[in-house]
## 1
Amino acid sequence: MKGTLSNVPIAKELDIVGARQTGRNIATELGFSSVDQARIATAISELARNIYLYAKKGEITFQQVEGVAPVGLKIIAKDNGPGIKDISKSMIDGYSTSGGLGAGLPGVKRLMDDFDIMSSDEGTTIHVIKWLR
Amino acid sequence: MRIPILKLHEYLLISVQVELDDQTAMQFQEDLLSKIHESGATGVVLDLTSVDIIDSFIAKVLGDVVSMADLMGAKVVFTGIQPAVSMTLIDLGIHLQDVPTALDLEQGLIKLRRELEEK
């Protein structure tokens, strides 16, 4: 089992729940602990909500990867929205342009092991990985 | 989807048994406030034993309902938060510091009674 495991389009609010359920199922199959399953599902929820709130449409892709540990779950959140104007600000705790809690991106970074973000006016792509320990 | 709200003497009891999506959480917020209004309940126990994920949005909705109920004169206690959920909430940077919590339903009712007696 390697490469892309699943692809979940995000276009409506209920897709957020769908994405995190898919992610949790994959995490369970890969052997992640229940705490890591909750961390992964929560991170997906935050990423999917960001897509829905700021870009309206996008997708979440799940991949099995190999690296610092033999098994990792990589989650790619991609949209073609307006992009994040100031990435460094978006990584500050409490910063939010939508009146939310502002836990979003810095929270996701703490929940996962690796975190990468690319954003331009053509969209945003966020890569996160959780390694199986 | 609607979350059932039970009345027990002057308290309201809620056990969340479904995966909370945004709409269900918002609907619950509204339902609970109406129920407090029509029943005159002074205390609410919200049991989260079966909830295995709380993200920042759901946390905000649930945290807000505590403040809203407080404005109406009702105390809300959260019970049964799972270890994995409490760990993820702290990772997310959400501390819910103003929210009274208890280990389980029984402890929640004891805490509620104590808090209401102090008033």
## 2
Amino acid sequence: MSTESATATATAPAAKGRNTKGGKGPRYARTGYLFVAPFMIAFTAMFLVPLAYAAWFSLFREQMIGGNVFVGLDNYTRAFTDPLLMAGLGRVALFFLIQVPVMMALALFFALALDSALVRLSRTVRLAIFMPYAVPSVVAALMWGFLYGPDFGPIAQFADRIGATAPDFLGADLMLGSIANIVTWEFTGYNMILLYAALRAIPVELYEAASVDGAGPWRIAWSIKIPLLRPAIVLCMVFSVIGSFQLFNEPSIMRTLAPNVIIAEYTPNLYAYNLAFVGQEYNYAAAVSFVLGFVIMAGSYLFMLATNRRSRS
Amino acid sequence: MSTVIEQPQAPAGPAARVRPRKPRPKRSTVLTVGMLAAAAYFLLPLVWLVIASTKSSEDLFSTFGLWFGGENSLFTNVKETFTVDDGAFGTWLGNSLLYAVASAAGGTFLAALGGYGFAKYRFKGNQAMFMGVLGAMAVPSTALAIPTYLLFSQAGLTDTPWAIILPSMASHPFGLYFMRIYADSAVPDSLIESGRIDGAGDFRIFFQVTGRLLMPAVATIMLFMLVQTWNNYFLPLIMLNDPDLYPVTVGLAAWQGQASTSGGASGDYLPLVVTGSLVSILPLIIAFLFLQRYWTTGLVSGSVKQ
Amino acid sequence: MNPRFRRRTGLAAALASPLAFGACARQRVDPPEQVSRAEIDEAMRTPTELNFWTWVPGIEKQVALFEEAYPDITVDVTNAAQGAGHYAKIRTALRAGRGAPDVAQIEYEMIPAFTITDHLLDLRPYGAGELEDRFVDWVWAQVSGPGGEVWAIPQDTGPMGMLYRADIFEAHGIEVPETWEAFAEAARALHRADPEVYLANFPPSQGAYFAGSLWQAGADPFAGSEGPVLNVDVTSEPVRRVAEYWAGLVAEGVVSTDPDFSDQWYQAANRGKYATWLTAAWGPVFLQSTAASTSGKWRAAPLPQWESGGPAAGNWGGSTNGVFNITEHPIQAAVFAQFINTDPECTKAMATEQFLFPPTKALLEDPEFTGMELEFYGGQKVNEVFAQISETVSPEFQWPPFNDQVRADYGATVGAAIAEGGDAAAALGDWRDRITAYAEYQGFTVEEAS
């Protein structure tokens, strides 16, 4: 929660020429409530109530033998010492450390290149890179699963033709990388568009002078544009923290291709799903989800804190 | 975060889309080639998908994946995709459309109203409520799946379209965030004031005057929610049991499961999964091409990968 | 009372305690001692709609025959999900107390998972007790409870056998191995002679295959478990023998470890990478449609044996129809489950058109079934081979009350270890530890074999 408050406080002074709120005085406060009421009611019913219920649910333990008992924080104690959950968290943390920097570097590079006006056909290129965002992750995983296929996948076929052996993309060593590639494929364009849009919003005057002084486009990108992009990059990173730690769809589809590599506890989200739907440990699954949510919040908060501090110094 | 704030302003002002630029620097061939190579990487799987959907199940495995096989089975495949299982695929597409449009329309309306309210009115709890909504984004959707399922089933809503539409409408807080920022900068207070002086009620002002200024943001959020719901897999997987209610993502995954577990049918289902995948992404790609004008400037909203 | 208000109070009660959901699920119909003929006749004349969840292709045929016999009953067939998803969906629906089917397809290995939570209806009062003589003994043992309950009606089975490529065997001078020892020898010889070909593929995450192998080896790891007491003996000598046998062959590199039923595996089967498929009675027809390009080259035989004494086999797959006790129409549901699995026309169609391997004595002795000659197997009477194997399946094999969890744990421990050719004995220990920890968490009293 704090991550967003940090975001918002950062935004407040930045909004230029913001007027005082239109609805001053108690008379309009009621109208204000009426405006936000539909959203808040829907949000409460569809989000907060289930969330509160899940939180409360996680304090129980229902057994096949012995029924249901209140166990307080036992499920959380178990979660924090659960080696399977920790292994899963470690895996997605590694995934985050490998995949996100690559994806962000690519997205940033593409955005800068497209913004620099150095590239021909930039509209087509931009669309092409963004296109995978329109592909459901289920379909993306199905496609890549086939492309990775040993023997019959195009990559393996190609390697075979030139007398080489394609790496075992679905093997235990490469699986995380293979999934990272799918996610990178899906979301680089999306992040690129975010950064590109942010770049378009930078007033030209800010680097016009530099241009006049003879700074080339690379130098302008490095010294002027990237520092200005920092808030947008941070935002993308926070979304990536959430996305990486919640990884579910891709591994769950890839599981049919390599069931012995993608085990039930491969990612924390997959683990929670299997706890609930295979092991019937519904209460513990809820606790695991909250621990995961907590890790994500802590992760994003730390990330914001780190970047804020650095930008201040 | 200033860039994020400024984003919505771009389409707001009439001149914002055309940014005055200095004479362009010389184009770089190296960079162009590099970018084209990158574009090729991003298009490659889609090219594969198009090629694969022209193949019979035999050719899928026996011919080179990135080139066409002996004979073109595209039409057979498409016909099969839409006729097998009593035309289940068409039903799934229709369901996806219904869920996506209904939740995008409803969700955007709620977000527009709410974002406007948060931006333009001062009331007790304004800030706190807003922050609460944003903080909720960090909670994984799986945490909610089972409790939501249990609550919904108590209300008799599981295995109905509502089980998808209602949660999709309200569980993407980013729409609200985006709308608030947008309304904040795009709607001048003076406009509201002058409406009030003319004696119009605040809701009338919103629906007749100020709401119109939010249209670019509305289009962006709508497209974004459309994508979210169309691509959603986890929620319908849990909520729906009746295959007649599946959206296309769950349906395709079910076919994929059938292709592998029922083996005998493997030869029959695999081209359907491939062709079905292609058909299922066409509507969104067309929507993106069609609404390019909006999202290139407006789609700053961040979605959670799911 | 206003129905809306009622719903609200129901929700409030549910929120007050998660137990309430369990309570909903356990609102079961008390089965009367024995339902009379008259009661059954009356129920079958009452217009009723039954919900039936199944994955069996073509089952509509049997449903139609049932609806013809009982025109007042309509059966709504739903294929909700494949594999594990099927049970997950049933369980969540049962748990929520709403939307669960009346009748469902249930594999033998999953029956205890639904009896431990008290969700299956004992079918004895509805006439199922008298069906015992019609079914093969070991199959009937699988659907029977310790108190003689009948938890489900068998539909098909999968006694395990070996399909082999006669052409490859011949080319390399391999005799059909009768013992596992001979099988291992042949595996080494074949792979040495042709590195592209493996005598067998061990599917590392196929827990059902492994369980069937244990069955054949005479292991019965959960024998004697009843109610809250769970016996776990997955480290016994026969279990270790099976696990170490495969881990050894994998370590030698003479057995492949592709996941079965994957694109890769189908392709390999067509290409002739595997010289045998260790499978079950449903395998022959399945293979015929998936490896069509190898027609005429395959033959069927019993599995190799651990001991040269009496032949033994295990079972892999097959399923039953069970009735959930939340049903509002227990009589109709029970009659339906019995009808489609015992009516001569229904069962004959299953065996000869849908190729489900029958569990009934009548069909296993029916020359029209056993005498079928399959082109794909060079005209061999494959059904006869498997009908004979079916007689060698031991009735002593018990499933744990949480088989899906045991399977998942198997994949993560033993399956993974075998796939790497690793230390199978250590992995069995890990498997036991996981099962024990889970069972204790679920409130079972675990008794490990010394």
## 3
Amino acid sequence: MSGHPSTYEPKYAATKWMDQRLPIIRMGADFMTFPSPRNLNYWWTFGGILALCLVSQIITGIILAMHYVPHIDHAFDSVQRIKRDVPYGWLLQPMHAVGASMFFLAVYVHMLRGLYYGSYKAPRELLWIIGCLIYLIMMATGFLGYTLPWGQMSFWGATVITGFFGAVPVVGESLQQWLLGGYAVDNATLNRFFALHYLLPFVIAALVGLHVWALHHAGQNNPIGITPKTKQDTLAFHPFYTVKDGFAVCVFLLIFAFFVFYQPDALGHADNYIRADAMKTPPHIVPEWYFLPFYAILRAVPDKLAGILLMVGAIAVLFVLPWLDTSKVRSMRFRPVARRFFYVFLVMCFILGWCGAETPDNIAFPFGTNDAGEKVGLSFYRLSQIATIYYFAFFLIILPVLGLTERPKDRPESITKAVLGGHKGAAAPAE
Amino acid sequence: MSETLNKETETVDDEGKRDFIFLATGAAAAAGAASLVWPFVAQMGKAADTLAAGSIEINLSNVPEGQQLKTLWRGKPVFVRHRTPAEIAEAESVDVSALPDPQTDDERLVPNSSGKVNPKYLVMVGVCTHFGCVPVGEAGDFDGWYCPCHGSHYDTSGRIRKGPAPTNMAIPPYEFISDNVIKVG
């Protein structure tokens, strides 16, 4: 799996026997000795954190499936039963539900890190694309899983999202009913959503295998984006990065545990404690927080199909990012102009998230009141349009143009020089 | 023995025949596999019992004036609105050509056995044509329905007037089986 010469030598008769037949111990050993750039910072620990999230979601998910009943008459009650009656269900169910949020939190940090440090540039285009694919399937899995508790938000979220397919010209309605297995979201829908929610994490696991393979073939990027040239530029993965990742995991788990133990419902929606009702739409439908920016993009145009195309485009554009960014310099540390635009992009993503949580016609920034005493100003609708335009402009205009016009700062010759250069005379070892 | 066989096959001049057999076998296998895909795709569609649970009867006289009956048909709410004279007048006075989905009020009603429409009763699928939420009655800028999800406004005829929904609320297939009873579906 790894692209570096193996230094593993089996010591014992048993390991020698094994090595000749199935060199799986060698694979693990090579993984541990994999030469990693010596300057990786804490933003690089999220890969390991994400692996932990996936494992945690699969284990808690399988346990929940042992108690959950995928039927519209029983689903809601069975989830409440897990929380109240099943031994340690109070712990395992929030671990899974909060875990989904933590998974998305980590994946967003991981993606933004890749964006900032140019981790998608040659030779890591496929690595990036596999990552985008994982993210896409994560979104599908998250959506399917949110339907299962069969609360009001589950039901109406499922109705709205499957409604996207109804917007496809000509075949839309047939396609939507084929997905639902009926005229509306019903038992057939719940059954298949459960089956697919169980399947997709294993597809993700397989893609993670490819992701790590591609990573070890191309080698890790690093904060200065310069390829390691000598042995001095790298450190063995273990113990250096296992320990660093381990520390980051501990901090991450503290946040995770805070939500699981003290705020298990903070990241969800109160309406999901009301059983699904096909006759009554909640007054204010919102998706889970991790979908809010895309929801805002969907609502930024008054046309149904155009809204969906924009939302799909917002994710599709990530897949072609390696060819949109024309700059040869990977890390934005050496791209002062691009870095500013990146920070604005980050702010715009948060603004989109905020817009997605609010009613479009409400006023985000009031300028005053009109004659009727109503607030006037910039509505969330207009604000989401501004942020949507910036989101797309960042990828489709700013990055392609900046690569050709921006003058990057001088880059250090090597990782070793960059690491030691700034710390001359310092007694403590460099980061 | 095998050597002689190999030699023979090498010298046989039947390449065209082999290509044909190769292609024919491949095509048969591909067609077989493709035909097996269909059941796997079609099983996702509506099952027979879902299709069978198709029609309901509604007694219109149970709906007082100015009130709305909401009932479930094929997993979706159906609205039966007993409209007030003011609502009917409002629905009929609209300039149809200016609507996003032009339809007169009469076009949205189904004639009874004597061929006349009764404008008092508006029957429609109570599902917003945007993303399928259930609109709230007696609300919105046009005194009809308002969808809380993404802000679509419908008038007293259930026609889309403002907001992201592309079309008017759907009229289900229904017929009068007596003066006051309709059969939906």
